[in-house]
Amino acid sequence: MSDFGKEYEIGLNAVIAVNDSGEIVVVNTGPDINDLDRLNKLWAAGVSSRCHLAVEVPIEQHLARLGYSISDVGTVLVTPLQAYSVGRVPDFLNARIGILRSGWEFFFSTRYHPHPHDYPPNVIPPTVLQYLMYDAPERLLLLDNHEEMAPGLTVRFTGAHHRASMGISFQTKHGEVVVSDSAFVRENLVPGRLLGIIENMYEALEANEWFRSVPYFVPLYDPTIAESYAGGIG
């Protein structure tokens, strides 16, 4: 363990994947911009007064750059379950919403942990919960470990960060691409440099073995990802 008291900038990235049939998958939606003040107050109180969340480029602008709109997205996968990853889910009116079953069940368990990342409105904001449970329950998919959602698209429980944390595997013509929040940045793959906000060290070690084994790993909080893959993969 190291770097106590040291601050790092992270990027809460989204991933857009399009297959040969034109089907679009989005990983994480970003937060609801109208919820930022509440989230920043929560993070400042529970983490650090210097902890601040902002939206630089909304997901619809990234989609538009590729020639798509939110209404074209058929699947949204969320990892982990947090307000910053699910906040825009109600805007994806035509998409299936995939959440790891273990994370969904943990959210509804009777245990409540007085920690910022388990505070219910910080996990699933009330408006998003309303949408998933009452407005669009037929499009909510609770995903199991190693579940194949479509040819070439598989999800796997990786844990480490949250009970809803998963690795999302895309098979491309250039090899396997894995996206996950169980390692925040590339440096977390270096032995002995696991992410600091960790629930289970052994899950992180196992996940990192997988991440290191694939041709392309996308750590969802690495601020260099957009530059590293400016032209996409595949």
Automatic annotation (TrEMBL):
InterPro entries: MBL_superfamily_lactonases, RibonucZ/Hydroxyglut_hydro. Keywords: Hydrolase, Metal-binding, Zinc. Its cofactor is Zn(2+). It comes from the Bacteria. The keyword Metal-binding applies. The keyword Zinc applies. GO terms for molecular function: hydrolase activity; metal ion binding. PANTHER family: 102 KBASES UNSTABLE REGION: FROM 1 TO 119443, QUORUM-QUENCHING LACTONASE YTNP-RELATED-RELATED. Belongs to the metallo-beta-lactamase superfamily. This is Metallo-beta-lactamase domain-containing protein. It comes from Candidatus Lumbricidiphila eiseniae.
